[in-house]
Write a structure and sequence with these properties.
10% strand; DNA polymerase, domain 1; hpI Integrase, Chain A; three-stranded antiparallel beta sheet
Length: 405
């Protein structure tokens, strides 16, 4: 036998202290909550008599409305139990709502399929991975939109941080992906907007930290003898090329071809993979020397500069192939750079992205204006570049503390 009762969920109170009132249905020790659409201050609600206190303006009318909601809910429960020998708490909730509650995973999977041609393969896989992670936490695909309450999401956050060891940044990203599908369902008028729980959750950001090679470390890196076997030397040259060519990201260095390079004027013009914008800038002598090292006697404009990809492969015509090749090259670069970092006894793990950080910090240290550094990094917001300026300021402060008494 199911029980129906009004519950003021004070733990979901908003900034004014008002808490949402729900109809609670319990069946076979399983609990479901149905929103009434109303909020009250705890002092305005009488939980014993299940009524709004007289201190609430219009209490008599409100109590009549609530009594009717409870009566309708109880009637639906009674009818369903009378007509069915086995009925779950979820089915009772659906009957009270007057419609079948929308399954989150079914909706998200359908939207993900539609997004396939409008987002990158990497983004599509990331979304899919986050949905799988959420499903594994839930233990099944039995998850409707109205089950995704603030309390439930906080439990998921705790699972991500304690069980999976995720950082705050990763937890924020996990919730962001879920919220994208929730908002899409609201936009399509399939889910009530008042059910959206994500705006009530705040996650503290992890302090951002940019690691980079100092001038001494960069010099040591340059002079270090790479393993002659495999791609270690090529990867080392690619890292240095990024340092001296505007901090290009790994994907852009890997896929750069000779048609992107104007050797006579020392310029690179290339569509950046991450932003989709054409980025054109001048590079210096150090970058030119690396390019000349890989320049063949006869240049084919469509050939890759660095021998990481096969020139005759379907890289430019098959997006899935390109994704898998970039993934392979990224893994190989990570392997060799970590080994080099250990050989140099660096106090941090060496990755290719540190070339970008190294370019920015060294450029600022050498007196380049922050606006110019921002332009070379192809940042849309100079605020992103200012992170590197803060690093320089911190280094200066540390130097004063160390050498000036």
């Amino acid at each position: 036998m199911a029980t129906v009762k009004l519950i003021l969920r004070t733990h979901q109170a908003d900034k004014t202290g008002a808490a949402p009132l729900y109809i609670r249905v319990i069946k076979d020790r399983k609990t479901k909550f149905i929103s009434t659409g109303y909020k009250f201050l705890p002092a305005q609600w009488n939980p014993i008599d299940q009524v709004v206190r007289k201190s609430f303006k219009g209490s008599a009318r409100m109590n009549a409305l609530l009594a009717q909601k409870v009566a309708d809910a109880s009637g639906e429960v009674a009818d369903l139990e009378r007509n069915s020998k086995t009925v779950s708490a979820r089915r009772l909730k659906e009957a009270i709502n007057g419609k079948r509650s929308l399954n989150f995973f079914d909706f998200a999977d359908a939207r993900l399929e539609k997004m396939k041609n409008s987002v990158s393969i990497q983004t599509h896989k990331a979304y899919k991975s986050q949905l799988k992670k959420f499903e594994e936490y839930n233990g099944s695909r039995d998850m409707n939109f109205d089950d995704m309450t603030v309390t439930m999401l906080r439990d998921y956050m705790n699972y991500c941080s304690t069980k999976l060891g995720n950082t705050n940044t990763t937890v924020r990203y996990s919730l962001l992906i879920l919220s994208i599908f929730f908002k899409e369902a609201i936009r399509e008028d399939l889910v009530y907007s008042h059910l959206y729980p994500f705006d009530k959750i705040k996650i503290k950001k992890d302090p951002g930290k940019r690691m980079f090679l100092s001038k001494t470390q960069l010099q040591n890196f340059t002079e270090l003898k790479a393993n002659p076997d495999g791609k270690a030397q090529v990867i080392k040259d690619m890292f240095l090329f990024s340092v001296y060519a505007g901090g290009l990201r790994l994907s852009d260095v890997i896929e750069i071809t000779w048609e992107h390079i104007d050797l006579q004027n020392h310029r690179i013009s290339k569509k950046i993979r991450k932003t989709g914008r054409v980025h054109s800038f001048k590079f210096g002598q150090s970058a030119l020397e690396i390019l000349n090292k890989y320049k063949p006697a006869e240049v084919n404009p469509s050939d890759f500069v660095f021998p990481m990809l096969d020139n005759d492969s379907p890289y430019h015509t098959n997006e899935l192939y390109a994704y898998e090749e970039l993934k392979r090259c990224s893994s190989l670069c990570g392997f060799h750079l970590r080994a080099i970092g250990k050989q140099m006894k660096l106090p941090f793990s060496l990755s290719f992205h540190l070339a970008r950080h190294t370019f920015a910090t060294n450029a600022l240290n050498n007196g380049m204006r922050i606006e110019h550094v921002s332009k070379l990094l192809d940042h849309t917001n100079i605020g992103t570049t200012q992170i590197y300026a803060k690093i320089i300021s911190q280094e200066l402060d540390d130097a004063v503390d160390k050498y000036i008494y």
